[in-house]
UniProtKB/TrEMBL annotation:
GO terms assigned for molecular function: lyase activity
UniProt superkingdom: Archaea
UniProt organism field: Haloarcula rubripromontorii
Entry protein name: Acetoacetate decarboxylase
Amino acid sequence: MTRLTDGDRVRLSTGHEVRLPLVTEATVAGAVLPAQYSVAESLLPEGLTPVRTTARRAAVVLLCVEYHRIGDDAMAPYDEFAVAIVVTPDGRRRPPLLPLLTRAAGAYVWSLPVTTEPARALGDEIWGYPKTVADITHRDDATRRETTVVEDGDRVATVSIDWPRAWERRERIGSYAVREGRLERTPVEFQGKLGVAPLSGRVTVDPDDHERADTLRALDLGSRSVLRFSLDGRIAYGAGRPVER
């Protein structure tokens, strides 16, 4: 397994080079939605446990991301749509929402379509993110972002998320993915105008014909979000670290 550390400069298969931690500039609209626990659990690798929002519901994150700059302009900007499951790595069963409230939770990235091949290589080769290349369209206005994802000629979904009120702040989370057969945790830092709105109905998810849309339907995402959030600022991705089991 190729071990990467912060400070490394990595050359991708596409010829692009980036340095870790990778600092990007982006605008993000996101939501945490309740989901069918058994389906969310079935999508996880060994070593991760879904966080419960209720006794029978897990939490799924949808992220609609427009990157404006990648590192020191290492590659062209791109768009992204992430579906992730809120998890803890130790397998302990905790009261619903407690890991979110104590910031003990992270997010396992289940699906991550992007709009360019260099972006796909970046996520796959450095962090093991399950990136695929798709057509992603963001439509922004003063109220919301509407994102449509089309892959292999089929529409995956259209997601609409209202912007919450935002203020300057910094947050850190951990994201999980499997790289070269091993589960890793990547530190991710958000800095800029960050908006947060709990318990909101201002999110719509419309899955369509793609095979991943079938999984979105099976997750039975709730119509009322646990949390809406937004970012206009920087996202920094550090080097992943193996998760000890």
